[in-house]
Amino acid sequence: MNLINADVRRLGSLQVAPIGLGCWRLVAMSANDAQAAIESALDAGINLIDTADVYGLDWGGQSFGEAEQLLGDVLKQAPAIRKRMVLATKGGIVPGVPYDSSRLREACEASLRRLGVDQIDLYQIHRPDLLTHPAEVARILEELKASGKIAEVGVSNFSTGQVDALQAHLPFPIVSQQPEYSALHLDPLFDGTFDQCMANNTGVLIWSPLAGGKLASAEGLPESLSAVLTGLAERESTDLSTLALAFALAHPTNPVALFGSTQPRRIQNAMGALKIKLDRNDVYQIIQAGMGESLP
């Protein structure tokens, strides 16, 4: 797979660009419009396409699996683009339960049917199930990988202890962790998530690097954070969205920032974050402004 940007991130056997397309918003669209959004990402060098089985119960969607089904419709009408992407999805959220990893086998097989593919490149546990033993979860994941239904395994929103517990029962590495991280949500810096990923050479996929869109505008932000971000954006001749992505990418985990949009131009513009090089002082200014206090 040829990436436009040479700064490749590795997730086990997979190679992805530093920006990924999150498909949470790609619901309630026509297949043609969704295809245009996805192809704009691929043409810009964004090859990680990240979705989930639960996407569709929010953001204009009406049913469980709607985003996967839409992506499956796109792949059906444009099958050639499948070879251009690293396809990632997530399972383990069961509406009303809410989390059940004992059903991951059935969830994965349902995702494969909706997507219309034989293999999912990166299959992730969306949220940790507090009531299923990690050994049982590991057995299911091992079977899915041995059967060729998934290529690599990742987790999302796991604590460091939950990662360790699952990894202890797996014969292969967890290749990715997906935490929330932005200038307004700095927890992975301090709760050990990023440290564990660096220790284990685990890829980091950041969700909500724009804090649900809050960082796309200076309005509503704490005054100190607004001032820092606005000043840096002016210095770099860029917008706040692109600067927020650059901040997420500045961490030494070499993360992938998942960017969600339905607009092809905005998706392509997200790659501009790779041209912005924030130095140590810049990043610490943002961190401290986001905390609302100085680091000790």
What does this protein look like?
The protein is an alpha/beta fold and 296 residues long. 38% of the residues lie in helices and 15% in strands. It has helices at residues 31-44, 66-77, 104-115, 134-146, 160-167, 187-190, 193-200, 223-236, 240-249, 264-269, 280-291; strands spanning 9-11, 14-16, 19-22, 48-50, 86-91, 120-125, 150-156, 176-178, 203-206, 256-259. An eight-stranded parallel β-barrel has the order 3-4-5-6-7-8-9-10, surrounded by four helices. Helix 1 crosses helix 2 (66-77) and helix 8 crosses helix 9 (240-249). The radius of gyration is 19 Å and the shape is globular. Mean pLDDT is 94; it is low at 1-6.
What is the CA-atom radius of gyration, in angstroms? 19 Å
Average pLDDT level: 94
Number of helices in the DSSP assignment? 11
Shape designation: globular
Q: How much beta, percentage-wise?
A: 5-15%
| Distance linking N and C termini | 45 Å
